[in-house]
Design brief:
- InterPro entries: DUF3551 (IPR021937).
- The chain is of the alpha+beta class.
- Helices cover 33% and strands 16% of the residues.
- It has two helices and three strands, in the order αββαβ.
- It has a three-stranded antiparallel sheet with strand order 2-1-3, covered by helices on one side.
- Strand 1 and strand 2 form a beta hairpin.
- It starts with a helix and ends in a 23-residue tail after the last strand.
């Protein structure tokens, strides 16, 4: 019986440590896929689209020799832009 009494505090300590680890390991905030400002449309008849360009030069280099064109990503809101629906309402005279 004696070894069982010594084992009880060790098991309780291990259980407490495991609980702290599980509770403390909260998932991080979800990070969405970044949206880049430029897209490339390869070819002219239903070719592939790539919207992973940080600037126009990168896009132009990607399509050079392949054909196609670059255009502004319609889903790009700009750095620091408020999410849709949270835009500041303008009052008269705020222009």
């Amino acid at each position: 019986m004696r070894p069982m009494l010594l084992l009880r505090p060790i098991l309780l300590s291990a259980l407490a440590a495991a609980t702290v680890l599980v509770v403390g390991a909260a998932p991080a905030a979800a990070q969405g896929t970044p949206v880049y400002p430029w897209c490339a449309q390869y070819g002219t008849r239903g070719g592939a689209t790539n919207c992973y360009f940080s600037n126009l030069w990168q896009c132009q280099q990607a399509i050079s020799g392949n054909g196609g064109y670059c255009y502004e990503n319609p889903f790009y809101r700009g750095a620091g832009a408020p999410p849709p629906g949270e835009r500041r309402r303008l009052r008269r005279g705020d222009g």
